[in-house]
Design goal:
Layout: E1 11-16, H1 22-31, E2 39-43, H2 50-59, H3 67-79, H4 105-114, E3 118-122, H5 125-133, H6 139-143, E4 154-159, H7 162-166, H8 179-198, E5 205-210, H9 215-231
Parallel strand pairs: 1-3, 1-4, 2-3, 4-5
Helix pairs in contact: 1-9, 2-3, 3-5, 5-8
The protein binds ligand Z5A.
Residues 16, 18-24, 44-45, 59, 74, 122-123, 127-128, 131, 168-169, 176-177, 214-215, 218 line the site of ligand Z5A.
Length: 243
């Protein structure tokens, strides 16, 4: 419509410990999307990219790596070229014209948001800091590589007690899936939360959502957090992750 300003998409990130239901809820929110414009789900790590293949080998213990190096790879996976998306097709779903053009990961998210498409991510930079800090790495060093990535408008932290997570299907299959590591990561997420809340208003709001109960009950709690965000999105600029 001539003259009317395009409303940008909302950027929502789901975080939480292993098995808390992030993937399930990202899928539900994406499929039942009621906001204006389209919506896309993203997942970090994105194991389909060249770096993602190496990250997957590390997580499934097929490959060992220095803690600093894997931290940088997780971050690079958020920045890297995202040439392929869905079955090897070039990602031109943002309608930027030339299908041979390569969109960078962060650029692709930014373009979608600018074009009015909302993005819902299953983990992001906050997992990066929490998991590496739980290994004892220096927190301010950890934050540097993700600085200037697009900042989410909303971070939904799905909160599930450790025993409940451990009882869910397939717990224990990957490198970080032990009760000891998950306990340390939980503490580190609390530190990250404090830091995010100390940012200015542009850097996203962190909301803890109880992940216990049925999938439908959790979905309902999430809707109660997302709906008000969508109402207040008008005219909002996009922020950046701060160091
Ligand atoms: N990592 C990192 O170190 N640095 C980084 O920068 C990033 C990540 C981005 C892999 O992540 C690891 O990478 C992760 C952090 C690290 N390590 N850990 N732990 P991932 O996201 O690929 O994998 P994940 O955390 O292990 O996610 P997940 O296994 O996919 O869990 P989830 O998405 O939170 O849960 P889910 O798949 O939706 O549900 C798990 C099961 O519970 C499944 O059977 C569901 O059907 C069931 N479920 C879901 N909701 C419910 C309810 N409400 N009731 C009962 N059962 C339920």
């Amino acid at each position: 419509q001539g003259g009317s300003k395009r409303r940008r998409g909302a950027f929502i990130v789901f975080e939480g410990l292993d098995r808390c239901g992030k993937t399930t809820q990202v899928q539900r929110l994406t499929e039942g999307w009621t906001g204006a414009g389209g919506v896309k789900g993203r997942r970090f790590p994105d194991r389909t990219t060249p770096l993602g293949t190496t990250i997957n080998a590390y997580l499934t213990s097929q490959q060992e790596m220095d803690d600093h190096a894997i931290h940088l790879l997780f971050s690079a996976n958020r920045w890297e070229l995202q040439r392929v998306d869905n079955g090897g097709k070039v990602d031109d779903s943002t309608g930027m014209g030339d299908p041979s053009r390569i969109l960078r990961g962060a650029e692709a998210i930014e373009r979608d948001l600018t074009n009015g498409i909302s993005v819902i991510a299953d983990r992001y930079a906050f997992s990066g800091i929490a998991f590496s800090a739980a290994k004892g790495l220096n927190r301010s060093w950890l934050a540097a590589p993700d600085a200037n990535l697009p900042a989410p408008d909303l971070i939904i932290f799905l909160h599930l007690p450790g025993e409940a997570a451990a009882a869910r299907a397939d717990f224990g299959g990957e490198r970080y899936e032990t009760v000891d590591i998950q306990t340390r990561v939980r503490d580190e997420f609390a530190n990250v939360r404090e830091k995010v809340q100390g940012y200015d208003g542009r850097s996203g709001e962190w909301v803890d959502v109880d992940a216990q109960g049925s999938i439908e009950e959790v979905e309902e709690r999430i809707k109660r957090v997302v709906d008000p965000l969508l109402k207040r999105m008008e005219g909002e600029g996009l922020g950046e992750i701060k160091r």
